Amino acid sequence: xxxxxxxxxxxxxxxxxxxxxxxxxxxxxxxxxxxxxxxxxxxxxxxxxxxxxxxxxxxxxxxxxxxxxxxxxxxxxxxxxxxxxxxxxxxxxxxxxxxxxxxxxxxxxxxxxxxxxxxxxxxxxxxxxxxxxxxxxxxxxxxxxxxxxxxxxxxxxxxxxxxxxxxxxxxxxxxxxxxxxxxxxxxxxxxxxxxxxxxxxxxxxxxxxxxxxxxxxxxxxxxxxxxxxxxxxxxxxxxxxxxxxxxxxxxxxxxxxxxxxxxxxxxxxxxxx
Length: 273
Ligand SMILES: O=C(O)C(=O)C[C@H](O)C(=O)CO
Description:
Elements: E1 2-5, H1 11-15, H2 18-25, E2 26-27, E3 36-41, E4 47-51, E5 59-60, E6 76-82, E7 87-91, E8 94-98, E9 103-106, E10 112-115, E11 121-127, E12 134-137, E13 145-147, E14 156-162, E15 174-180, E16 186-187, E17 192-193, E18 197-204, E19 212-216, E20 223-227, E21 232-235, E22 242-245, E23 250-257, E24 266-267
Parallel strand pairs: 1-3
Antiparallel strand pairs: 2-21, 3-4, 4-11, 5-10, 6-9, 6-11, 7-8, 7-10, 9-12, 13-14, 14-15, 15-23, 16-22, 17-24, 18-21, 18-23, 19-20, 19-22
The structure holds the ligand O=C(O)C(=O)C[C@H](O)C(=O)CO.
């Protein structure tokens, strides 16, 4: 199943009802046992998906009809983060083991499937013009960038997996995981946007009763979304993206667009919000 969402204009956010905001920017219901569920957004043509293998069967990544392709990665590259228990990503039948919050990059042209009851694979894809191979990223072996401060309740560790020069090369995709420290609540504070890319956050590790208050929109007219575990938010290039959790959490960030320079972001001063 693949849902298609259109690109949106910044001014429409100010007057949108809560239901309209959620329909346009919140992605829920991605994870269902034995299925691959996907959303195609026309914002930089990113695809987000959840793949949940059940039993011992391999679960193949389908060539969803809206792609009009013989197979999913015919004209695309893929990032994978396992947000569940241990499992395998099969790339052209070769197995790669991924533990919780480990990641993988799969380049143009390859066939992908997933295996492992208990694993939950979050997938992000962008259009691609050349093959950048296959790579696995282990959170335990990745040196994080430490950000934030205790007085602002924003201490967090940012694990960069695919992030442009210095990281594994890609056509467009950038991908990583940020883990909020115990006792901190804020991600991406102070916030930013990046005019040259779309970014998507998938929140994970939240307990059932907790939520993240995710802030979006143009800096001087922000709105918010309440987001639960396993839900994602699409941030078009004009939108700030930041959030505060009511409990501990992590999130997967992924970007696609004009460049692969992680540092190409436009900071927004708190006074401008
Ligand atoms: O907590 C943070 O700060 C982030 O993780 C920021 C994201 O990586 C991001 O928004 C990159 O543009």
